[in-house]
Amino acid sequence: MAITQSAAPPQVTIWETTNAIVASRALHVVAELGVADHVGQQSTPVATIAVGCGVDPRSLDRVLRLLSSIGIFARRRGGYAHTDASLLLRSDAPGSMRAFARMMNLRLMNETFTELMHSVRSGEPAVNLVEPRGFWAYLTDHPDQARVFGEAMEARAAAYIAEVLAAYDFRRFTTIADIGGGLGHLLRALLTAAPGATGILFDLPEVVAATDVAVERLTTVAGDFFRDPLPRADLYIVMEVLHDWDDQDCLRILSAIRRGAAPGATVAVIENIVPETGDDPRVNALDVLMLAITGGRERTAAELADLFGSSGFRLQAVIPTAGPMKVVEATAV
Ligand SMILES: C[S@@+](CC[C@H](N)C(=O)[O-])C[C@H]1O[C@@H](n2cnc3c(N)ncnc32)[C@H](O)[C@@H]1O
């Protein structure tokens, strides 16, 4: 007997999933062009938006009509006004997600995902076909794209940092190291919530160089977690990093943390966690993205517990947040 997941007729499910790429690509283009920055408080004529972006008004109108039909912009009197979703595409919006929507325009993302078939056939990350040195080496060589990626991570995190801070008491710790902390968005928020703590942001040299270092109680350490010693801390944050790597590399990262850690130190892995039962389509989508783009994967809490057990840590707790992320806490043994 067939298993039915969706209330839509089966043909519609296939049709919609096949064509999801159209709206997705329209969104990437609109974000890349900065269309939302040219839409005012009231409905703005499409010709005005097109002049602002330097593009063809008729084509832009068709792309915006598609997006407005799914709630991104509202079509009014031959022009477009903002909705809550399109406001998030403005460059100056609090929690702007423009960079996140631009991320799939990055050459490596775009071309790699086109090669998903390679991952499925070979079990290898598709990125090997496009950039055999891997995703991070490519970003190192392309600072403009690395900036968009870093801002995309910041934009994505903006949506759930408050939920993480509400779920986990960071004030217990005095030295907090954020390993692969990107532009330092989580650490900055966390130091505000934990006024007695100091923070150390650890990431690749070119990423650390792009961060705003003038933050009280925050220092940066540039390095490679596969080669360089990690700073000593009593809490290590590892947010959306392990999912970029296969199990062997995760063990190398966790073992490097263990070598640098103060006795009894805590690791807080903050990631989407594959549920033991049921399905979370967002986690599954991220998992397939990782399959192609980095060779990493999303994991269950039990899989993370195994990695902890093999790298000198013991799982303590899996703490849900109000959003999609979980805090998986382990202590050094
Ligand atoms: C998916 S991003 C997550 C960033 C941030 N933790 C967040 O959740 O927004 C992964 C991070 O790992 C960093 N990274 C990748 N390889 C690294 C390495 N070998 N050593 C240190 N950091 C690395 C990247 O530069 C990037 O900032």
Automatic annotation (TrEMBL):
CDD domains: AdoMet_MTases (cd02440). Residues 15-89 form the O-methyltransferase dimerisation domain. The keyword 4Fe-4S does not apply. GO terms for biological process: methylation. Pfam families: Dimerisation (PF08100), Methyltransf_2 (PF00891). It comes from the Bacteria. Residues 114-314 form the O-methyltransferase C-terminal domain. Keywords: Methyltransferase, S-adenosyl-L-methionine, Transferase. The active site is at H243. PROSITE patterns: SAM_OMT_II. InterPro entries: COMT-like, COMT_C, COMT_dimerisation, SAM-dependent_MTases_sf, WH-like_DNA-bd_sf, WH_DNA-bd_sf. This is Hydroxyneurosporene methyltransferase. SUPFAM superfamilies: S-adenosyl-L-methionine-dependent methyltransferases, Winged helix' DNA-binding domain. Transmembrane segments: none annotated. GO terms for molecular function: O-methyltransferase activity; protein dimerization activity. The keyword Ribosomal protein does not apply.
